[in-house]
């Protein structure tokens, strides 16, 4: 595990002095006239976003960071991280903070701000590295940042370099790194081993569909299963997407990428669980073998599904994977998918909804989302909408007419394939940051997985 923190002498690191307006007033009382003059010249008041470089003969000696008021900070995340790109490349340490400074969150944000995607062009991010403060678990933050970086890199990679085979390689690399076992079922073997919907969705593509099945940990430990949607590109199939809607469809494997990132965190930290990661990896393409509107598909679970829109394919491949996962009665099963536009209409790109019937798990996820600055918001498995996914001609409808409650009906569809898991939650992710923000580069996004990690570490899902 490569550390994301500065090494060497902490004493030689440049101090970051983080001040709100009241703290700045107190600082001025003891500061030298020269330092007060430099702060004044740079218009530093302690307001959120203020920054002043204190120099001595051209050498950077300290940095003042404005912390501002709580109501302004509530409008964003990781305010400290906003300064990283504007500082010279050097080693820094946190020297002074206000009372309401959340060290763990802000250090995490600073480390996340070091990400840049440079596979094809561009330059690495500014190497302004922070020494890990006392009392902060450096290994845990490093594992989280590594997992998030993996997630971002996978989503940012276009489908010509990350199709089903490329996603398989990414899982194989992760398995090798952590000593995990990997089983892969490809092509027509999906039919003989009873994964008909994964096969049907991916059979028209140049690269064969496949199911990636990674396992790690003590077989007797509590079972944690992650299921991630791995649609490496989504044309919409015969219900072809318009060009504007297809432009970002390299991110339609964002659920798989987030599941991979979380799996890395779990294994890197050696959590006492038996981990299983299931990814149906396909491309929803157009060709002679493409499935059609009006087709009725068999599923692994035995339920039949009427296809009313081939662009609602993610729930089909997830259904077979969820059915497999459910067969071994996991203690906790988490499903991640870039599933519906309805979720984005409801909550926007920053706040993914999640669905669960377990009240304790819902409370734990909500609390962890706040504590980790990794937002999630619960939407209901609304039972009165169940008839909307029952077409009559088959057991289930993959795309109910009318477009109402699209995120909920998709979640209800998935829930039909989960009966045995002791705790289950589904996350409808966007997987993309449209505009760069502190600690969050534009492009592929990890969403909710730091909160999920905290819940898995806490372990109450296993006790209930």
Automatic annotation (TrEMBL):
<feature type="domain" description="Cytosol aminopeptidase">
    <location>
        <begin position="309"/>
        <end position="316"/>
    </location>
</feature>
<comment type="similarity">
    <text>Belongs to the peptidase M17 family.</text>
</comment>
<dbReference type="GO" id="GO:0030145">
    <property type="term" value="F:manganese ion binding"/>
</dbReference>
<dbReference type="GO" id="GO:0070006">
    <property type="term" value="F:metalloaminopeptidase activity"/>
</dbReference>
<dbReference type="Pfam" id="PF21337">
    <property type="entry name" value="Peptidase_M17_N_1"/>
</dbReference>
<dbReference type="GO" id="GO:0006508">
    <property type="term" value="P:proteolysis"/>
</dbReference>
<dbReference type="InterPro" id="IPR043472">
    <property type="entry name" value="Macro_dom-like"/>
</dbReference>
<dbReference type="InterPro" id="IPR000819">
    <property type="entry name" value="Peptidase_M17_C"/>
</dbReference>
<keyword id="KW-0464">Manganese</keyword>
<dbReference type="InterPro" id="IPR048816">
    <property type="entry name" value="Peptidase_M17_N_1"/>
</dbReference>
<protein>
    <submittedName>
        <fullName>Leucyl aminopeptidase</fullName>
        <ecNumber>3.4.11.1</ecNumber>
    </submittedName>
</protein>
<keyword id="KW-0031">Aminopeptidase</keyword>
<dbReference type="GO" id="GO:0005737">
    <property type="term" value="C:cytoplasm"/>
</dbReference>
<dbReference type="InterPro" id="IPR011356">
    <property type="entry name" value="Leucine_aapep/pepB"/>
</dbReference>
<keyword id="KW-0378">Hydrolase</keyword>
<keyword id="KW-0645">Protease</keyword>
<dbReference type="Pfam" id="PF00883">
    <property type="entry name" value="Peptidase_M17"/>
</dbReference>
């Amino acid at each position: 595990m490569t550390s994301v923190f500065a090494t060497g002498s902490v004493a030689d690191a440049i101090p970051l002095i983080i001040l709100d307006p009241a703290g700045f007033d107190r600082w001025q009382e003891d500061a030298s006239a020269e330092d007060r003059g430099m702060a004044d010249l740079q218009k530093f008041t302690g307001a959120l976003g203020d920054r002043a470089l204190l120099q001595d003969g051209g050498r950077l000696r300290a940095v003042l960071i404005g912390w501002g008021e709580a109501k302004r900070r509530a409008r964003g995340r990781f305010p400290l991280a906003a300064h990283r790109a504007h500082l010279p490349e050097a080693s820094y340490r946190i020297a002074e903070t206000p009372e309401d400074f959340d060290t763990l969150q802000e250090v995490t944000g600073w480390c996340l701000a070091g990400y840049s995607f440079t596979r094809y062009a561009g330059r690495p991010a500014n190497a302004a590295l922070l020494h890990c403060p006392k009392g902060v678990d450096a290994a845990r933050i490093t594992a989280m940042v590594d997992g998030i970086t993996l997630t971002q890199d996978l989503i940012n990679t276009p489908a010509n370099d990350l199709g089903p085979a490329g996603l398989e390689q990414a899982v194989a690399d992760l398995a090798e790194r952590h000593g995990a076992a990997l089983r892969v079922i490809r092509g027509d073997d999906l039919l003989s081993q009873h994964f008909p919907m994964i096969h049907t969705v991916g059979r028209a593509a140049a690269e064969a569909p496949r199911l990636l099945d990674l396992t790690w940990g003590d077989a007797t430990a509590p079972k944690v299963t992650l299921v991630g949607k791995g649609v490496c590109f989504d044309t919409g199939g015969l219900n072809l997407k318009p060009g504007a809607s297809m432009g970002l469809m390299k991110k339609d494997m964002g659920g798989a990428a987030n599941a991979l990132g979380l799996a890395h965190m779990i294994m890197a930290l050696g959590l006492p669980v038996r981990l299983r990661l299931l990814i149906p990896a396909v491309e929803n393409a157009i060709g002679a073998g493409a499935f059609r509107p009006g087709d009725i598909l068999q599923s692994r679970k035995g339920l039949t599904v009427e296809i009313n829109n081939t662009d609602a394919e993610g729930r089909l491949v997830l259904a077979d994977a969820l059915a497999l996962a459910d067969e071994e009665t996991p203690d906790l099963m988490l499903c991640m998918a870039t599933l519906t536009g309805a979720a984005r209409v409801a909550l926007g790109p920053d706040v993914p909804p999640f669905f669960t019937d377990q009240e304790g798990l819902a409370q734990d996820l909500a609390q962890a989302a706040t504590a980790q600055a990794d937002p999630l918001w619960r939407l209901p498995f609304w039972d009165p909408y169940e008839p909307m996914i029952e077409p009559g001609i088959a057991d289930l409808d993959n795309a109910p007419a009318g477009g109402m409650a699209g995120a909920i009906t998709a979640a209800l569809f998935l829930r039909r394939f989960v009966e045995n898991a002791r705790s289950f939650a589904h996350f409808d992710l966007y997987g993309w940051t449209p505009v760069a923000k502190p600690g969050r580069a534009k492009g592929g996004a990890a969403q909710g997985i730091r909160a999920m990690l905290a819940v898995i570490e806490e372990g109450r899902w296993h006790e209930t």
